[in-house]
Every structure is written in structure tokens, then in C-alpha cells.
Amino acid sequence: MRTDRRGLLKGGALAGVAAAVPVAAHAAAEVAAVIVHDSRLAESASFAGGRGIDLAHLSLREVHAALAGATRVEGLTRWSDWTVLRGLLEEQGLRRTAETRALAPLSGHDGLLRWSMVAR
Questions:
Q1: How far apart are CA 35 and CA 66, in angstroms?
Q2: Distance, CA of 99 to CA of 117 (rounded, Å)
Q3: Average pLDDT per block of 10 residues along the chain, 120 residues long
Q4: Which pTM does this prediction carry?
């Protein structure tokens, strides 16, 4: 069997794809997080992009059930919602990894908090 430039390039491309698939799958698993937002606040709704748990439409019991088993949670919520959610998630074994006050010029609400929690 003769090796030429074209064969080497094809082989290299296939090897690259084979190596990249597990890395991409792992990265996607790490990125997958439960998103918590409040659609009544423009910045929070924009942050979620139409997915995740919307605090405007769920009771606390429903939010608690939706968060059961979560290993990574990201949110942009009011301070009061964050304090309740933080307690629920800490009971489930998650720990806070980020907490930053966010400006909310569209809604005029200054108490938004951008936060993250992950499983211990």
C-alpha cells in the first residue's frame, strides 16, 4: 500500500474527529446546566433565552421538584429569590461558585443577582 499526501490528510482528519468527539461530549455535559430566571424581568428572561425554570410561572414546590437532582444551576434572579433557591440547593448538596450583583437598566430593578451553584 502506497502512502501519499492525500491519504495522510484523510487519516489525520479521521483521527482528529475520533479524538474530538469524546472531548466535545464531555464539554457539552459540563456546559449543561439548569437555568433559573424570572420572565417578568427583561434581563433575566434574556439571560435564559426561553429555557430553564421560570420563577414567574411556578410555585416554590414546583421549583423545588424541578431542581431535584440538578448538579449545576445558573441563575439571574432577584435577591429574595436567590436566598430561597440557595437554601434549597444547599440542602441538595450544591455549593455556591459565583454570586455577582447585576445591573438591570431595562427593568429598572437594581436587586438582580447572577449566581452559579454546582454539586460538591
A1: 11
A2: 9
A3: 56 41 43 87 90 95 95 94 95 95 68 92
A4: 0.70
